[in-house]
Amino acid sequence: MDIAAIQEALRDERLDGWLFFDHHLRDPLAYRVLGFEAPRTPSRRWYYFIPAEGNPTALVHRIEPGMLDALPGGKKPYASWNEQAAGLKEILSGCGKVAMQYSPNCAVPYVAMVDAGTVEVVRGLGVEVASSADLVQFFEARWGEAQLESHLEAGRRIDGVRRAAFERIGERHRGGAGITEWDIKNFILESFRKEGLVTDHGPIVAVNENASNPHYEPAEELHREIRKGDWVLIDLWAKLAGGDSVYYDVTWTGYCGETVPEEIKNVFDVVVGARDAAVERARAAMEEKRALRGFEVDDAAREHIRSHGFEEYFFHRTGHSIGREVHGTGANMDNLETHDERRVIPWTCFSVEPGIYLPKFGVRSEVDVFIDDDSARVTGELQREPVRIC
């Protein structure tokens, strides 16, 4: 944790401070931003306040006085509820507006970690509570050089696994043997293990109408056979095992046959066009040196799909932040599920993954876009045509 950097950011945001709060490890963001691990699961509430000027102060229960000893600054103990209230009032004395892990209307649920009651307590002291979403993005979502390299290396390995998965289907078909979504899911997971990759769940391997369920995953008790003439969607994400690595997340589609049916190819082309429009919106903003907001990228993809008459079949956001978790804490490319007005800041990464989900089949095309100081770039391979799985 860099106290000076946090305080500079607070002054830039015209905030009097940043109030962190936790109970029973509810707020993982607090521990990551503050750069420490709790010595044990907190059974009592703790508070840690970083003012825009001056030294931080911890407010901890007398039963767990050492909970925040790893952090710099002063410490105030409490035991009773009125001592807690008095201590909180004291450390926030003179503050008009402080940041907390709060999101108005829960517009950014990844940041909405503080319960409504605690927000009420702080407001009851006459202090305005602002969302820490932009601060969290600045101190949590930005990558370093090592994380970018981990992403690129994970991408090289995952792209190889993805190619092998489609080829596996083709091999089985050419050999006259059967193969299922479940088989390919397990093939991918085993390939991840061999490649030194880890993932939190997934992957998605979906045939025909299953591909119209954006979060479908085959299970041992529920999956489909992959036959000739089928449409196949594979969405896979992982990161390098160990270290401070970050995810790589892509979706490709293919057809089990020589010639893709015209209906499917038409939808595929619309989705790819939407993907490219969203990426171009990000690139143009960086080239023009203007602020880019998450909702703008969503608008670019959605307008392309709307212009081709498929608006009702695109019912999720265009993309999400990518970091240590596959769904990270930076700006999302979203003007549907939420109106994400957060600025997309340098050294962050997000997915672009528009989709059209029809009753008989679904198409999604996903790439990752990294923003550096001057440009926006796709970090992996771009799918231009459906994979021919023959």
Task: Tell me what you see in this structure.
This protein is of the alpha+beta class. The protein folds into two domains: 3-140, Creatine Amidinohydrolase, Chain A, domain 1 (3-Layer(aba) Sandwich), CATH 3.40.350; 143-388, Alpha-Beta Complex (Creatine Amidinohydrolase). The chain has helices spanning 3-12, 28-34, 81-91, 116-124, 133-141, 145-174, 181-194, 262-287, 294-307, and strands at residues 17-22, 46-51, 57-61, 74-78, 97-100, 128-131, 197-198, 204-207, 231-240, 248-255, 321-322, 348-352, 355-357, 362-364, 367-371, 376-378, 387-388. The strands form four sheets. It has a six-stranded mixed beta sheet with strand order 4-3-2-1-5-6, with helices on both faces. Strands 7, 8, 9, 10 and 17 form a five-stranded mixed beta sheet that branches. α6 packs across α7. The longest helix is centred in the middle third of the chain and has 30 residues, at 145-174. The chain is elongated. The mean pLDDT is 96.
The tally of beta strands, per DSSP, is: 17
Question: Please, what is the average pLDDT?
Answer: 96
Label the overall shape.
Answer: elongated
The CATH superfamily of the largest domain is identified as Creatinase/methionine aminopeptidase superfamily
Helix content: 25-40%
Domain module tally: 2
Describe this structure in a few short sentences.
By secondary structure, this protein is an alpha+beta fold. Helix content is 33%, strand content 20%.
